[in-house]
Write a structure and sequence with these properties.
Blueprint: E1 3-8, H1 13-24, E2 31-38, E3 40-47, H2 50-57, E4 66-72, E5 87-88, E6 94-102, H3 105-114, H4 124-139, H5 143-151, E7 156-164, E8 170-176, E9 181-184, E10 190-193, E11 205-208, E12 213-218, E13 222-227, E14 232-233, E15 238-239, H6 244-248, H7 255-261, H8 263-271, E16 275-276, E17 281-282, H9 285-289, H10 291-295, E18 299-304, H11 306-323, E19 327-331, H12 332-335, E20 346-352, H13 358-369, E21 373-378, H14 384-388, E22 391-394, H15 407-427, H16 432-442, H17 445-452, H18 456-466, E23 471-476, H19 480-495, E24 498-503, E25 520-524, H20 531-543, E26 547-553, H21 557-562, E27 565-569, H22 577-595
Parallel strand pairs: 18-19, 18-20, 20-21, 21-22, 23-24, 23-25, 25-26, 26-27
Antiparallel strand pairs: 1-4, 1-10, 2-3, 2-4, 5-6, 6-7, 7-8, 8-12, 9-10, 9-11, 11-15, 12-13, 13-14, 16-17
Bound molecules: 2-deoxy-2-amino glucitol-6-phosphate.
Length: 613
């Protein structure tokens, strides 16, 4: 998810664009750049935050009333000065910024190279501007027509802004699956941005572009919108009244809630291009790169911290059940200091949203030194862990701003599920029918997560009852035991209520002494294979006056008669349960924290990335 902005009008473009990029930095911040036209195309781009770009540009006097800016969240190509946007065409006549993914960029790039084009970056965006150039040159076309024809060749998601140096009174934009807003200023000013945050201080009149629409903003001629077949569209002008900080959060009160609701999309993004229900396959590039060594490993060791450690525990169940490879899950901070026994027959997987957690990084370096193959499962493209591992897979969850990890957790679990299935299929440790059944079901997960989110209002009511609790217990079995740990972590880190996660069967070995009418017990009871057992665990709690909130498969009438509160989630294959059973726990912790007046996005004492030991 990147931030893009464009401006055409009578004012100096540079200050408007820089200010707008700072408003958009929450969307991505690994590199940024600007392009201003004043006869020449002045392009400046820099790895780092927008302030690094400002420093870099500081000695240049950039004047011009037409320009664009981009703050990047890398998907193709590591964050550096070359891969940063904007990108120029080969003839230095055109410049583009882009938010999205061009899925067929590789084949287009090969064709363009056969036509003599040369590329400087690793990005899909640079391919697109060369394609627009090729089409424009061949047909001697106006820029908006060249853009339209090029986009008809493209598969993927995009929000783009394009400037043609030889057409200095025009700004062209287009969108498909990535947001793009047109701002209509008062004195013939026009703005373009990924959302309204950079626009609202200049105007509250906006037009939200729809998919396959192309906008042409022309000085003194105004706004024209056409579809991909060149049919003119009547722009619908909205009046916005949201405040800026609300806009950054997409209308949600906190980034954490926005990110909880992004999960159907972020899980789909994680799976995009990595599986096919129709053809029945799952493919992870990182696994294919080292297939033999991974499939013949003696052991898989997972090192991580916090929530990422919880997704590692889920991976232990997934990989051992499906791929039959022994798995050990280690707290990175412990692993790195206990002189572990590691051999070249081991695979060490590091799981990390930030890719910068000091303990996880150190554990990885130790594993590399001892000859293990290292694999990274990371969200931030080009982060330290992504760079030092022998192979890896990005979870493509987009920037996670809330300190409490939500969409990164489900992104990690999604990736690990794909990994377990990919290895299992390579090793033949599950039948073809089982494999195809699971590949088909995993494609249903995003919409089942969407369904699980529908319990939000009910969960908010339940939260009212428990917002003043001082302790809480989370119980789960099998795949849901790590989910119980994750639910407890969510509650304690944002509401400051002490909470513990336990295997449900472990109650009788001590924790049951804690149970009384003041102890809410959250039980994740979706297991089909151990349903009777978890029913009896709940009865043990009830017998001691415990109050039970049960997360169950929809239609579980048995539990409905026993528990005090029931939260239903859609049924799915047992290995995929964590992706659904965690959703109510995220919402429960969120609402309780809000009711307790806590700062949900920046809880006390915590940082988003623990880069110190
Ligand atoms: C989770 O909600 C916490 N923010 C924290 O436990 C986090 O998961 C942990 O610090 C690991 O971070 P990483 O995934 O970036 O390595």
């Amino acid at each position: 998810m990147c931030g893009i902005i464009g401006y055409i009008g009578k004012r100096e473009a540079y200050p408007i664009i820089i200010k707008g990029l700072k408003r958009l930095e929450y969307r991505g911040y690994d590199s940024s750049g600007v392009a201003i036209l004043n006869g020449e195309l002045n392009v400046y781009k820099k790895k780092g935050k927008v302030n690094d770009l400002v420093e870099f540009v500081s000695d240049s006097n950039i004047s011009g009333t037409l320009g664009m800016g981009h703050t990047r969240w890398a998907t193709h190509g590591v964050p550096d000065d070359i891969n940063a946007h904007p990108h120029l065409s080969g003839n230095n006549r055109l410049v583009i910024i882009h938010n999205g993914i061009i899925e067929n960029y590789a084949s287009i790039k090969l064709w363009l190279e056969s036509q003599g084009h040369e590329f400087t970056s690793e990005t899909d965006t640079e391919v697109l501007i060369h394609l627009i150039e090729e089409i424009q040159e061949k047909g001697q076309l106006p820029i908006e027509e060249a853009v339209r024809l090029a986009l008809n060749e493209v598969v993927g998601a995009y929000a783009i802004v394009v400037i043609d140096r030889l057409d200095p009174n025009k700004l062209v934009a287009a969108r498909k699956s990535s947001p793009l807003v047109v701002g209509i200023g008062k004195d013939n000013d026009y703005f373009l941005a990924s959302d309204a945050t950079p626009i609202v201080e200049y105007t509250n009149q906006v037009v939200y572009l729809d998919d396959d629409e192309i906008a042409v903003l022309e000085r003194d001629k105004g706004l024209r919108i056409m579809d991909k077949d060149k049919v003119d569209k009547m722009p619908f002008i909205h009046e916005i009244d949201m405040k800026i900080e609300e806009l950054e959060k997409g209308g949600y009160d906190y980034f954490m809630l926005k990110e909880i609701y992004e999960q159907p999309k972020s899980i789909a993004e994680c799976m995009r291009g990595r599986f096919s229900t129709e053809e029945g396959w799952i493919r992870l590039g990182g696994i294919l790169q080292h297939k033999n060594r991974i499939c013949n490993a003696d052991r898989i060791i997972i090192v991580a911290c916090g929530t990422s450690w919880h997704s590692g525990l889920i991976a232990e169940y997934l990989i051992e059940e499906l791929a039959r490879i022994p798995v050990e899950v280690e707290y990175a901070s412990e692993f790195r200091y206990r002189n572990p026994i590691i051999s070249e027959k081991d695979i060490v997987i590091a799981i990390s949203q930030s890719g910068e957690t000091a303990d996880t990084l150190a554990a990885l370096e130790l594993a590399k030194k001892k000859g293990a193959l290292t694999y990274g499962i990371v969200n931030v493209v080009g982060s330290s862990i992504a760079r030092i591992t022998d192979a890896g897979s990005y979870i493509h969850a987009g920037p996670e701003i809330g300190v409490a990890s939500t969409k990164a957790f489900t992104g990690q679990v999604t990736l690990l599920t794909l990994m377990a299935l990919h290895i299992a299929n390579e090793k033949g440790t599950i039948s073809r029918s089982k494999y195809h059944e699971l590949v088909a079901e995993i494609g249903n997960i995003p919409k089942k997560v969407q369904k699980a989110l529908e319990s939000n209002e009910q969960i908010k009511l339940i939260s009212e009852k428990f917002k003043d609790a001082e302790n809480a217990l989370y119980l789960g079995r099998g795949y849901n035991f790590p989910v119980a740990l994750e639910g407890a972590l969510k509650l304690k880190e944002i509401s400051y209520i002490h909470a513990e996660g336990y295997p449900a069967a472990e109650m009788k070995h001590g924790p049951i002494a804690l149970i009384d009418e003041n102890m809410p017990v959250v039980v994740i009871a979706t297991n089909k294979s151990a349903h009777e057992k978890i029913i009896s665990n709940v009865q043990e709690v009830k017998a001691r006056k415990g109050v039970v909130i049960a997360v169950v498969n929809e239609g579980d009438e048995v539990m409905a008669r026993i528990a005090d509160y029931i939260i239903e989630i859609p049924t799915t294959a047992e290995p995929f349960t964590p992706l659904l059973s965690v959703i109510p726990l995220q919402l429960l912790s969120y609402h309780i924290a809000v009711m307790r007046g806590c700062n949900v996005d920046q809880p006390r004492n915590l940082a988003k990335s623990v880069t110190v030991e």
